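Subject: sequence -> structure tokens, single chain

Hey, anyone have a minute? Need the predicted structure for the following. Not urgent.
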Amino acid sequence: MPGHINQTVRQRLEKAGLWRTFRRRRDKLRDNGLAAAQANSQALRELLPPESEPVPPMPPELADRKAKESTVIRWVADNLDNPLPDPADCPAGAAWALLRHCRENEINRDKFLTTIWVRLIPNCGNESGEEEKWRTSSTLDPGLLSRIRKIAEACRNEP
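Reply:
Had a minute. Here:
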């Protein structure tokens, strides 16, 4: 829902005594023509410090690097909590820019995790061909795949 603030962000604002200030600022930004989601992001940037360390501007050597979208998204997910991402490991300038965007505020991070990152998780709704779907979809961490399989098997065996 555009303009929606998740509960964690709201609680953080309330705890800091900034909920009413946030609402006034957000409403003023909306009145000045900003879309609801943009008004929320702007008001949050003004009132709350980032949850994690900001990522420095993109190093020039990344400007011309290109990579598949899935590679970019995986790199960002791997580095969300990395305080010092290494530009040498960054697959593309877009990955660096997306990581910076995700670290701006909790809304951006939450949107990345709930709408972009989850789309890389394979859909294994039926059991025919399930093994093949996992094998071709999981290139991030082979250990992760075996842990997910064990959890899935344990869930199937529960009464």
